[in-house]
Amino acid sequence: MQIVSGHHSEIWSIDVDPEERFLVTGSADVELRFFTVNHELNEDHSVSDVSGTEIVNNGDKPSPDKWQILKQFGEIQRQSKDRVATVRFNKSGNLLACQVAGKMVEIFRVLDSAEAKRKAKRRLHRKKEKKSAKGAVEVIENGDIIHRSEGDGNNPMVTVPDVFKLLQTIRASKKICSICFCPITPKGSMAALALSLNNNLLECYSIESSANTKTVAIELHGHRSDVRSLTLSSDNTLLMSTSHNAVKIWNPSTGSCLRTIDSG
Q1: In 3D, which of 78, 165, 155, 88 has the Cα closest to residue 117?
Q2: DSSP per position, 26-47
């Protein structure tokens, strides 16, 4: 149906929000790229695009861009220089997590269309004030002021930074292997995010509007590197496992770790 080009390097992850308004791609370069999703319109129905303009399908003749499912919306620059490993929206679609191939996860807030329009209006207003402060001259044709591609004050052009705002950054102690949002939003926070680290740790973070807190971690049971040997005691009551940097004694009946001995 459509081939989307324009990425400068290979795409490592892709996701769409639950309402299917936006599709985001993460690659090896420092930008996250966003596309708006164009849903096929039924006859005698109309929808609004992201800028609030009504699109009507009259059903008589097909639109020239009928097969253009994705329309380029724009890019935002990431904080980390590492390549993207995973991009994921949460279940409600108000947060976007970008995990890089390192120790960092960037959390973006996704504003709804009303909030995005208000932000675009404020941005346009600040730009006008800045222009007038510098004494800039507006371009006038036939007495009308022209705002190129910015939209007017009542219907401003919504851009990617108006919708996606960097909320906070999570830095883990070790390299992150994968991330996952909890499908249930905990009380008193915006979301819960689980991280799987490459040293066999699991960490869960609570994401609030101003900060994030590590709420729970599973870090004591398993080895931090590959298991190299196993042996049972003569009466089968103890199991010993050895790895690159530790010896662990287990109860084979319950599976619980009884003792960890650090080893060179």
Answers
A1: 155
A2: EESSSEEEEEEE-PPPPTT-EE
Nearest by Cα to 170 from 160, 181, 185: 181
DSSP 3-state assignment of 212? strand
Average pLDDT over every residue of 136-160: 57
Do 149 and 187 meet the contact criterion of CB atoms below 8 Å apart?
no
Nearest to 109 by CA among 119, 96, 122: 96
Sheet containing strand 176-181, edge to edge, reads: 176-181, 191-197, 202-207, 212-218
Residue with tokens 């620059």: 77
- Tell me how far apart the alpha carbons of residues 161 and 134 are, in angstroms, rounded to a whole number: 24
Q: Which own/partner contact pairs does 247-254 have at CB distance under 8 Å and 24+ positions apart?
A: 248/223
Q: Is 217 helix (H, G, I), strand (E, B) or coil?
A: strand
> pTM here?
0.70
CA dist 167 and 219 (Å) reads 27
Which DSSP symbol is given to 188?
T
Q: Which of 251, 107, 246, 97 is nearest to 168 (CA)?
A: 107
Give the largest Cα separation in the chain, rounded.
98
C-alpha 236: how far from its chain's center?
49
Q: Is 112 helix (H, G, I), strand (E, B) or coil?
A: coil
Task: Summarize pLDDT for 59-71 with one digit per residue, the tens.
Answer: 455 555 667 889 8
Distance CA 141, CA 204 (A): 58
When pLDDT is averaged across residues 178-205 and rounded to a whole number, the result is 90
The domain limits of the chain are 1-39+67-122+160-220, 227-262
The C-alpha atoms of residue 219 and residue 204 are separated, in whole angstroms, by 11
CATH of domain 1-39+67-122+160-220: 2.130.10.10
